[in-house]
């Protein structure tokens, strides 16, 4: 039995599905169901007793304490967070509340529960904290990729809130001995990503003949990781990672945003020729404030210590992703709700 937080979101839901398929043991899934949480992501588990869904907030300490005592998990995998950089610019308060205060509340209840465990359960327990490469700040074009020893330099309210949570997790290991493992990964893409993030946004806008908004000059670089590879990386870190250590997980796929958008357009030109060439929809818009120029992950430690490396190439992962959105129209229609439309109006006023 493991307890996952944020398991109705993009990566969390992919992880829950991957865990049940690969490991087969039960998952308690605690999720507040914010705009980003979607129970439809887990529809295939509706009648599976191994998935126990609980709607709730990681800051609700009474609920968290009850779940821990009731289910006696051998690990926590902590995904729950506010995760969108642009939203953190419009309203940072919720990011501090969930990512910092929420992680603190969760850690406090986990510490209390962990103290009650007898050996060998106590030393076998793990708190796996899912973090981001954004805590390391921005790279120059010729800088080496982020390693686990790169100093923290977060630049957005989102990145700062994640950095704060990483520090709390680290402190709970050094001060209380809680067996924590932190993973810092690069940009994920794949099925079930909420369409406010670049890749699903571009796929859906292109299908609907709408502008494809590129911030600034489109030359910002991200290191794209297929979500399925991220899930296997987390499982490797959970099973083999050393308590107190951090592991960087990346996709070895540095691309400029323009390269990413052109790749999506090319795939759509083949799979959905109706609107070809889709690249004609590319529209340069005002840049994101404080937009980090380049992220890149050095995942050598994951490879040498844990034997993990990404299986997916950018081209194969992107084909699977576009294909998934083309074949899951019902999921897309449910997700594009009033909340999504409000966000598009707030963030892209210049496009209207
Ligand atoms: P997401 O926004 O798609 O999902 C977040 C989930 O957390 C949602 O289901 C939401 O309902 C839930 N949640 C939010 N606040 C909560 C609270 N207070 N209590 C309980 N549940 C709450 O995010 P994602 O893209 O799946 O990211 C998951 C984690 O991975 C986050 O911690 C994020 O910082 C990290 N991460 C994401 C990426 C990426 O590219 N998406 C890359 C690196 C790290
Ligand atoms: O690096 C890991 C991070 O990746 C995670 O920690 C975050 O949770 C996740 O949201 C993601 O952050 P980014 O800001 O990199 O992702 P996003 O999809 O929002 O943007 C990717 C790049 O595309 C970024 O350089 C901004 C740009 N962009 C984004 C949008 C939404 C555009 O040019 N136009 C857009 O409309």
Task: Please characterize this protein's 3D structure.
With 352 residues, this protein is an alpha/beta fold. It has a domain at 2-193 and 223-254 and 293-313: NAD(P)-binding Rossmann-like Domain (Rossmann fold, 3-Layer(aba) Sandwich), CATH 3.40.50.720. It has helices at 10-22, 61-71, 85-90, 93-115, 121-124, 157-176, 198-207, 227-240, 257-271, 300-306, 314-326, 329-335, 338-347, and strands spanning 2-5, 27-31, 51-55, 75-78, 126-132, 180-185, 188-189, 212-215, 221-223, 225-226, 246-249, 254-256, 282-285. The strands form four sheets. A seven-stranded parallel sheet has the order 3-2-1-4-5-6-11, sandwiched between helices. Strands 7-10 form a two-stranded parallel ribbon. It has a two-stranded parallel sheet with strand order 8-13. Helix 6 (157-176) links the parallel strand 5 and strand 6. Helix 1 packs across helix 8 (227-240) and helix 4 runs parallel beside helix 6. The N and C termini lie far apart (49 Å). Bound molecules: nicotinamide-adenine-dinucleotide and 2'deoxy-thymidine-5'-diphospho-alpha-D-glucose (DAU). 2'deoxy-thymidine-5'-diphospho-alpha-D-glucose (DAU) binds next to helix 7 and strand 8.
């Amino acid at each position: 039995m493991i307890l996952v937080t944020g398991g109705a979101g993009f990566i969390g839901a992919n992880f829950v599905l991957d865990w049940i398929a690969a490991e087969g043991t039960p998952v308690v899934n605690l999720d507040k169901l914010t705009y980003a949480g979607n129970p439809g992501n887990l529809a295939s588990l509706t009648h599976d007793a191994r998935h126990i869904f609980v709607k709730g907030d990681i800051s609700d300490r009474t609920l968290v304490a009850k779940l821990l005592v009731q289910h006696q998990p051998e690990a926590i995998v902590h995904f729950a967070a506010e995760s969108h950089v642009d939203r953190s610019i419009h309203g940072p308060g919720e990011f501090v509340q969930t990512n910092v205060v929420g992680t603190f509340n969760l850690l406090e209840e986990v510490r209390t529960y962990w103290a009650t465990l007898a050996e060998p359960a106590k030393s076998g327990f793990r708190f796996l904290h899912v973090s981001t490469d954004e805590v390391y700040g921005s790279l120059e074009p010729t800088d080496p990729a982020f390693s686990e020893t790169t100093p923290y330099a977060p630049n957005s309210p989102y990145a700062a809130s994640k950095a704060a949570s990483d520090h709390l997790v680290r402190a709970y290991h050094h001060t209380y001995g809680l067996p924590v493992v932190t993973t810092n990964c690069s940009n994920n893409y794949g099925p079930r990503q909420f369409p406010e993030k670049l890749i699903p946004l571009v796929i859906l806008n292109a299908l609907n003949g709408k502008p494809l908004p590129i911030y600034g000059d489109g030359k910002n670089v991200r290191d794209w990781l297929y979500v399925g590879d991220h899930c296997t990386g987390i499982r490797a870190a959970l099973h083999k990672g050393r308590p107190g250590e951090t592991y960087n997980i990346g996709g070895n796929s540095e691309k400029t945003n323009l390269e990413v958008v052109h790749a999506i357009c090319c795939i759509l030109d083949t799979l959905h020729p109706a609107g070809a060439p889709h690249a004609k929809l590319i529209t340069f818009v005002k840049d994101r404030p404080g937009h980090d120029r380049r992220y890149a992950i050095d995942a050598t430690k994951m490879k040498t210590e844990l034997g993990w490396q990404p299986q997916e190439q950018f081209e194969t992962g992107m084909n699977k992703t576009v294909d998934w959105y083309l074949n899951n129209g019902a999921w897309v229609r449910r997700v594009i709700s009033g909340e999504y439309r409000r966000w598009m109006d707030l963030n892209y006023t210049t496009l209207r």
